[in-house]
């Protein structure tokens, strides 16, 4: 055999792929950037995803509806969790090809009684969501997103700070001249959670000289709400920035929310384009991954089983057999090797930027604690599937063994006797307000999902 056939080496998509693949990757990235800009919260991402599915002929499904071969359906779970599925022509006992990604991202949520004033300024109190590095969120423009639900049941959408004509919001930082003591603190303690207060105004009401009252009057005029409506709201701030090309060569994308919409988008678009597949296909877009996947919209919910059971019963099959023969790609990101911080990475087993989609056999921390661990037979089958379509991929691991680690939704799916492995895009500066990915890695993840759905 030739040397190159004996030795395994990672190669970039630019070297191993074709010019047509690279050109297609750059074109595909334009739709993804729009998806990011219009879907900065899980609710917004779900609405866009439904619109994309309906444009491809999918219709809404409710639990208890009849399901037939050829149906193209979606299930909207509380506006935060989406199941998109198509029923194939092969027997359902052959299983379902499942992809599962999450559409929530680290952010800063408002508390239920958020509004106050102090020192001639109006603020919102907050509670951060997911694993953020708090110092990264100060002194940067922020946008307010979410919903307010009144006691009358009216749902009011809020999106302020994205349009160029909108105001933006802000979290104060301490000037360096007075930060001698703060600068001595560890980075994790330099900004405390209770200091992440959002600056929202400074002009008092003309009658009562109250900044808080003036803000409430503005909100009442715009949305018809009063202060107690915050009690039944879900509001958050996210970076008021757009997805932009990074680099002279425009080969990368910088944006908020790559983790994990950079996997949600290819998983969904691949399913919507999988016209010739004989398999039953399912794409799950979940919420709450960044906080443990708990609750009715997270992947620890039993809803996935409910829907699989409904499909099986409608097609006259045993759900246990369907699950046993199903396969899943847990579509989540991995950390790309960063030469600026080499000490935390083991380079041979860390994904590299622009070397394609990443398959992660296990996640967890330290001694593989708290992880799904895909079996070799499943990985071998996947290698054959990807080889059929010349998909460029790499194996990955999240940092050195003793440096921490992380988790995905894979373990919540595999516990139902479904072969599962993590697939995703390598990300620089993961969980930062502005993350970076390579366009070719995004596209190879899309191609990997297409192959998985097809074979």
Terminal CA distance reads: 28 Å
- Percent of residues in helices comes to 25-40%
- Helix segment tally: 12
Structural class: alpha/beta
What composes the largest sheet? 9 strands, mixed
Strand-residue proportion: 15-25%
Strand order of the largest sheet: 1-2-3-14-4-15-21-17-19
| DSSP strand count | 23
How would the global form be characterised? globular
Structure, explained:
With 455 residues, the protein is an alpha/beta fold. Helices cover 28% and strands 25% of the residues. It contains 12 helices and 23 strands. Strands 1-2-3-14-4-15-21-17-19 form a 9-stranded mixed sheet. Strand 12 (244-246) and strand 13 (252-255) form a beta hairpin. Helix 4 (42-55) packs parallel to helix 7 (258-273). The chain is globular, with a radius of gyration of 23 Å. The protein starts with a helix and ends with a helix.
How do the strands and helices of this protein lay out in sequence?
Layout: H1 3-6, H2 13-16, H3 19-38, H4 42-55, E1 59-60, E2 72-77, E3 81-86, E4 96-102, E5 107-118, E6 121-129, E7 142-149, E8 155-160, E9 170-171, H5 187-190, E10 198-201, H6 211-223, E11 233-239, E12 244-246, E13 252-255, H7 258-273, E14 280-286, H8 303-314, H9 319-324, E15 327-331, E16 334-335, E17 357-360, E18 364-365, H10 376-388, E19 393-395, E20 405-406, H11 410-414, E21 419-424, E22 426-427, E23 435-438, H12 439-454
Parallel strand pairs: 1-2, 4-14, 4-15, 15-21, 16-22, 17-19
Antiparallel strand pairs: 2-3, 3-14, 5-6, 5-11, 6-10, 7-8, 7-11, 9-10, 12-13, 13-23, 17-21, 18-20
Helix pairs in contact: 3-12, 4-7, 7-12
């Amino acid at each position: 055999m030739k040397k190159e056939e004996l030795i395994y080496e990672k190669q970039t998509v630019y070297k191993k792929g074709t010019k047509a693949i690279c050109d297609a990757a750059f074109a595909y990235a334009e739709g993804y950037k729009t998806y990011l800009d219009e879907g900065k919260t899980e609710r917004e991402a779900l609405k866009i995803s439904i619109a994309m599915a309906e444009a491809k002929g999918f219709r809404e499904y409710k639990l208890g509806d009849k399901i037939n071969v050829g149906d193209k359906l979606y299930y909207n779970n509380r506006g935060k969790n989406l199941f998109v599925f198509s029923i194939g022509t092969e027997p359902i006992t052959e299983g379902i090809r499942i992809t599962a990604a999450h559409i929530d991202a680290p952010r800063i949520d408002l508390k239920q009684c958020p509004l106050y004033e102090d020192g001639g300024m109006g603020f919102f109190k907050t509670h951060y969501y997911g694993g953020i590095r708090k110092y990264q969120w100060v002194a940067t423009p922020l946008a307010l997103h979410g919903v307010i639900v009144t006691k009358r049941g009216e749902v009011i959408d809020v999106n302020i700070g994205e349009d160029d004509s909108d105001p933006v919001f802000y979290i104060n930082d301490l000037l360096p001249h007075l930060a001698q003591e703060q600068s001595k603190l560890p980075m994790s303690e330099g900004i405390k959670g209770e200091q992440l207060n959002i600056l929202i105004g400074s002009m008092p009401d003309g009658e009562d000289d109250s900044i808080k009252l003036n803000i409430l009057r503005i909100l009442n005029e715009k949305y018809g709400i009063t202060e107690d409506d915050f009690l039944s709201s879900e509001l958050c701030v996210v970076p008021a920035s757009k997805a932009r090309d990074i680099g002279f060569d425009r080969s990368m994308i910088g944006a908020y929310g790559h983790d994990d919409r950079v996997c949600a988008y290819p998983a969904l678009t691949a399913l919507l384009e999988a016209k010739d597949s004989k398999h039953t296909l399912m794409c799950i877009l979940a919420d709450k991954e960044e906080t443990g996947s708990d609750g009715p919209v997270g992947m620890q919910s039993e809803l996935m089983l409910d829907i699989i059971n409904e499909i099986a019963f409608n097609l006259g099959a045993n759900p246990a057999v369907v699950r046993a023969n199903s396969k899943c790609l847990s579509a989540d990101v991995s950390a790309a090797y960063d030469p600026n911080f080499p000490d935390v990475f083991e380079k041979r087993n860390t994904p590299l930027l622009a070397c394609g989609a990443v398959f992660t056999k296990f996640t967890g921390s330290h001694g593989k604690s708290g992880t799904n661990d895909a079996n070799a037979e499943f990985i071998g089958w996947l290698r054959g599937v990807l080889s059929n379509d010349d998909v460029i991929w790499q194996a990955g691991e999240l940092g050195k063994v003793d440096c921490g680690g992380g988790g995905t939704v894979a373990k919540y799916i595999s516990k139902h006797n479904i072969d599962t492995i993590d697939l995703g895009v390598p990300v620089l500066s993961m969980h930062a307000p502005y993350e970076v990915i390579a366009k070719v890695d995004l596209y190879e993840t899309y191609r990997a999902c297409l192959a998985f759905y097809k074979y």
